[in-house]
Amino acid sequence: MGLKILATAAAVALYLTTTIAHADDDLVRGEEIFALCGTCHGTAGEGNQARGAPVLAGLQRWYVEAQLHKFRSGQRAYHAADVMGLQMRPMARTLVDDADVANVAAYIATLPPAVPAATLEGDVTRGSQLYAPCTACHGLDGKGNEALKAPELLNQADWYVVAQLTSFRAGMRGTHQSDLTGMQMRPMSLTLPDDQALRDVAAYIRTLRK
Question: What is the domain range of residue 101?
Answer without folding.
Answer: 2-108
